[in-house]
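Next up, sample data.

:::
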Amino acid sequence: MKVHKFQPDLPPPPATTGTIGWLRKNLFSSPLNSVISLVLGYLVFSGLWQLINWALLSADWQGASREMCRREGACWVFIKVWFKQFMFGFYPAEELWRPKLFYATLVLIVAALAFEKTPGRKWLWLFFVNIYPFFAAALLYGGVFGLPVVETHQWGGLLVTLIIAIVGIVVSLPIGIALALGRRSEMPVIRGLCTLYIEFWRGVPLITVLFMASVMLPLFLSTEMELNKLLRALIGVVLFSAAYMAEVVRGGLQAIPKGQYEAADALGLSYWKKMYLIVLPQALKITIPSIVNTFIALFKDTSLVLIIGMYDVLGIGQAANSDPDWLGFATESYVFVALVFWVFCFTMSRYSIYLENKLHTGHKR
């Protein structure tokens, strides 16, 4: 009796797999789609080529004055001349080592926290939240350890943007968690106060909050206490962002199945242990995309401090555009500012995707 052996499966046709298969399926599945794809591809390619030609190939890179901008492309000499102002504002030149040290330590700490195998990561996080802000404030402002005082009105550029964004992110998250728990509390007074706070701040534009923090906040303080503009802006941003963060966290709390709460109660856990050990870890994991989205929005909203007389990186760009020696290069200024914001926002977005994949345990669909 002859035994027939099964032959191995043949590989799929090359035209249906890989890049060619994807192109045939998504861009050239029919004659009409093929024509549309070709036309759109031509428009995208021509526009991209013009952008590359303007920004790179025909751009001016070397020099120290506008006379060196002789080509038809971008004049990056303008950014080169104003680069220190974009990074440090009007910080005294002889003290620039202080914001540079701040940048270096910030990058090292954030990189160490992002790397999950960093030894002592928990203690480093506690240092970053509880001690590092005071170190950074003493380093940048001075008045201690023989450092001369540099008033905050001399700060500017990326320095102000990062300070407002970092303080807003780090401080608003725990406040938002507390407000979210308070809004779901069974005690009517706490629930009512938290709801009133959240709805009030969510109903007011941030630009109004900054005006209020800059103009009205000093009216509620004693005459002996004076807050500079930066501290007022920080208070306004934190109060505003905490309300939005609270709603994001509350959405995560409501997404947790009721059985999780009942299981924690069955184990005899107290309210705080139930929240800390069971509910909050799951809720925060679910809301990672929304939390990071709020962080990104907060980072971009830092540009609004310009209206109260503070020069963040966008404010420095507008100040540079009004310089009589560099009139006519506003495009380069805004492109550079947009690139700075994009780099930070894109980095936060990619890291949030990494955290989602790392912590994925079945909620993701």
